């Protein structure tokens, strides 16, 4: 292995292909690698052009080790790869690996090919591609409001929700919109990092005596986006640094947007003074999408891809993959890749077979409304039948509302579905119950603890 300094993307790619052909079947090579066109090679990153977004998905799922190895052999050291969709209807950059380096890459078995450089906004994470449903309506409205009037209404904006529900997407969309809205003058400085990147850069800056440069980078931002702040947990010096960054930007009237997997007050091991700063602005939750939204997301994504899939297939995916939009996309990509290679119509059985692991994963996550009702009834010592009854005394109505709130939080069921399961109540009643419980929790520490305790018990039961 020699340390060569090739900089021509074609040459690197040619050598890589030479190595690759020793590792994978001729058929696989012809199908997945021959059509690839190298685009550029800069600062250790090779950009490869592909016709549609199935390539990065499929290559990442099946050939990432071989590709990495071949690149290493061809170039003499590690090379990052990014795929770019160059033709067809799609003009969209698709990274081979997970877009967001910190979330569930391990779970989805990805992560071997590096993603876009830190600080970059992912081109397809714009408002136009973000499908709005009951689960994200409020958060989307808040994000749009922030993008239209940065630092004027909600500062900071704090978006929270479980993994794969669109936090990063929404956050990038704000960045794109603010850049787009700026007319004349210098373009706004948008800084996007995860809390882990913030921490790492901070440590590196200390080690290299570059703390002033570090501070400048963050404190000169017009818009600061910090993703997944739950990873600040226990990192006291980084929190301290971030606290000062926050204050500097806030005082300078700059917009700050944060995301986390839970509301500000529930982020573990976070200094109280940071929590209270976060509470100055607005917290907006992203809930799991209901069936209509899942279907709408699938339709929008399928329309962008070059493969035609029947409504039946999309409905099947939407029904089965519920808890996480990233997984919803993964399921769609899998089916689309199959359809691209086979002319035959997909049968239900084939779809089931293709998505076996997605479906199994869902089953593992499934927590039923009934289980939640049972646990809440036990905890508050009421009868299970009171969950569906029309009885209104507080000692019954409140636990019932808490159960609705927990169903909303812990299951991907729609408001309608939840209402149905609570004696045929309508979706407005469920929404009202959720809001009331949230408001009560904010006022009543005892209640908050009780509900958190229930939440934990139910999470464990998953
Ligand atoms: P999180 O940061 O909450 O883990 P992401 O923002 O990374 O989630 O979203 C996961 C994937 O799901 C991304 O590819 C994103 O584009 C997609 N996604 C999430 N919400 C939506 C939505 N409402 N409409 C379209 N795509 C969505
Ligand atoms: Mg994210």
Q: Would you write up a description of this structure?
A:
- The chain is an alpha/beta fold and 462 residues long.
- The chain has 4 domains: 9-89, GMP Synthetase, Chain A, domain 3 (2-Layer Sandwich), CATH 3.30.300.180; 136-286, Rossmann fold (3-Layer(aba) Sandwich), CATH 3.40.50; 291-365, Helicase, Ruva Protein, domain 3 (Orthogonal Bundle), CATH 1.10.8; 369-460, Orthogonal Bundle (Chromosomal Replication Initiator Protein Dnaa, Chain: A).
- 53% of the residues lie in helices and 10% in strands.
- The chain has 19 helices and 9 strands.
- The chain has helices at residues 9-23, 26-33, 54-75, 137-148, 167-181, 195-207, 211-219, 236-251, 272-278, 291-304, 311-320, 325-341, 348-354, 356-365, 369-380, 394-410, 415-421, 427-443, 445-461, and strands spanning 37-42, 45-50, 80-85, 93-94, 157-161, 190-194, 223-227, 255-260, 282-286.
- It has a 5-stranded parallel beta sheet, with helices on both faces.
- β7 (223-227), α8 (236-251) and β8 form a beta-alpha-beta unit.
- α10 (291-304) packs across α11 (311-320) and α16 crosses α18.
- The relative contact order is 0.08.
- The chain binds adenosine-5'-diphosphate (ADP) and magnesium ion.
- The site of magnesium ion has 6 residues, from α5.
């Amino acid at each position: 292995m020699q340390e060569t300094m090739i900089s021509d993307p074609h040459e690197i790619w040619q050598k890589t292909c030479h190595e690759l052909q020793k590792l994978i079947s001729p058929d696989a090579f012809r199908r997945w690698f021959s059509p690839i066109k190298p685009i550029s090679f800069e600062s250790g990153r090779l950009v490869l052009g592909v016709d549609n977004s199935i390539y990065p998905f499929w290559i990442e799922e099946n050939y990432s080790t071989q590709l990495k190895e071949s690149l290493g052999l061809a170039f003499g050291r590690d090379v990052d790869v990014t795929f770019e969709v160059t033709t067809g209807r799609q003009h969209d950059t698709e990274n081979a690996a997970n877009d967001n380096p910190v979330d569930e890459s391990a779970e989805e078995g990805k992560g071997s090919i590096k993603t876009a450089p830190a600080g970059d906004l992912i081109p397809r994470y714009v408002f136009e591609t973000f499908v709005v449903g009951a689960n994200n309506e409020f958060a989307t409205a808040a994000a749009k409001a922030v993008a239209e009037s940065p630092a004027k209404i909600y500062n900071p904006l704090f978006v929270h929700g479980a993994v794969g529900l669109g936090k990063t997407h929404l956050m990038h969309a704000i960045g794109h919109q603010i850049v787009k809205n700026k007319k004349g003058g210098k373009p706004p400085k948008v800084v996007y990092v995860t809390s882990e990147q913030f921490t790492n850069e901070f440590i590196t800056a200390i080690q290299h005596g570059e703390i002033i440069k570090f501070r400048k980078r963050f404190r000169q931002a017009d818009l600061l986006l910090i993703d997944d702040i739950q990873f600040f947990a226990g990192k006291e010096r980084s929190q301290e640094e971030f606290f000062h960054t926050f204050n500097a930007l806030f005082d300078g009237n700059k917009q700050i947007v944060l995301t986390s997997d839970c509301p500000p007050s529930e982020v573990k091991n976070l200094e109280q003074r940071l929590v209270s700063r976060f509470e100055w602005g607005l917290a907006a939750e992203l809930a799991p999408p209901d069936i209509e939204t899942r279907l709408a997301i699938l339709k929008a994504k399928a329309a962008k891809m070059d493969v035609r899939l029947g409504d039946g297939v999309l409905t099947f995916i939407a029904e089965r993959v519920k808890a996480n939009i990233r997984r919803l996309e993964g399921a769609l990509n899998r089916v689309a890749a199959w359809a691209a290679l086979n002319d035959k119509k997909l049968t239900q059985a084939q779809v089931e077979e293709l998505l076996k692991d997605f479906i199994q994963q869902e089953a593992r996550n499934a927590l039923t409304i009934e289980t939640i009702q049972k646990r809440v009834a036990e905890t508050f010592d009421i009868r299970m039948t009171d969950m569906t009854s029309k009885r209104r005394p507080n000692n019954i109505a409140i636990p019932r509302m808490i159960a609705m709130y927990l169903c909303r939080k812990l299951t991907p069921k729609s408001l309608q579905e939840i209402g149905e399961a609570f004696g045929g109540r309508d979706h407005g009643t469920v929404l009202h119950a959720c809001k009331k419980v949230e408001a009560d929790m904010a006022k009543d520490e005892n209640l908050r603890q009780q509900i958190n305790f229930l939440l934990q018990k139910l999470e464990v039961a998953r």
